[in-house]
Amino acid sequence: MTLKVIIFDFDGTIADTLDALVSITNDLSEEFGYKRANPDDIERLKNLSPRQIIKQSGISLFKLPGLLRKVKVRLNKEIELLTPISGISPVLIQLKNNGHLLGIITSNSKENVVIFLKANGLEEVFDFVYSGTTLFGKSKVINSFLSKEHLKPEDVIYVGDEARDIEAAKASWIKIVAVSWGFNSKELLTKHHPDFIIDAPKELIEVVENL
Q1: Rounded Cα–Cα distance for residues 81 and 148 (Å)
Q2: Cα–Cα distance between 193 and 191 in angstroms, integer?
Q3: How far is the C-alpha of 101 from the C-alpha of 5, rounded, in Å?
């Protein structure tokens, strides 16, 4: 087994933040002028790209940066009470014990991530947390990180729950493991042809060990 740098997305991949994010964005809908989402909407949105979601919501692109900032601030008040995805914590610990370097690249704030990791006893598992505030062009954030840390793409694996994670990893020439327990549906993830797709956290160990 070759030791790897494993980069994780945060929301939906490690942290079970979906319900909190839906609640927060619904609370902000009147202020920013878009439609509230009901449970049926959430299931439908899992099959859409971020651009399609934004278009259907009716929110102005000019208001989007302000919305994202407010969502992070509101999430900060709840993040300490949120929990990891079921089964992910022991997998992260085992990967760390196997000698891999683990990190997080997220559009969430670094402060929120650090609070969450400390609250759930995972702060020692991760070697880095890198926050890049972009909804589109996530590959630019990844490339910036790879350059900063002098990492070769062939030594890196990205783990994420959205189609845009797949697109970003491919654009950065790194392997991508898509997880079906997050925001985007397995059907949508499959259409974007990730290197691997897994349905349970424990499957990640076998994927990494065989690379």
Answers
A1: 33
A2: 6
A3: 5
Q: Which helix (H) or strand (E) covers residue 167, if one does? A: helix 163-171
The residues of the chain scoring below 50 in pLDDT are: none
Sheet holding 128-131, edge to edge: 128-131, 101-106, 5-8, 156-160, 175-179, 196-198
Q: What residues have CB less than 8 Å from 50, skipping those under 6 apart?
A: 135, 136, 162, 164
Residue at token pair 């910036």: 144
pLDDT at 1: 60
pLDDT in tens, 114-143: 999 999 999 999 999 988 766 556 788 889
Nearest to 75 by CA among 121, 12, 32: 12
Q: What angle do CA 16, 18, 21 make, to 5 degrees?
A: 120
Q: CB neighbours (10 Å) of residue 90?
A: 12
Per-residue confidence (pLDDT) for residue 71, from 0 to 100: 92
Q: Angle at the Cα of 43 (from 17 to 119), degrees rounded to 5?
A: 10
pLDDT value of position 168: 92
199 has catalytic annotation:
no
What is the DSSP code (8-state) at residue 15?
B
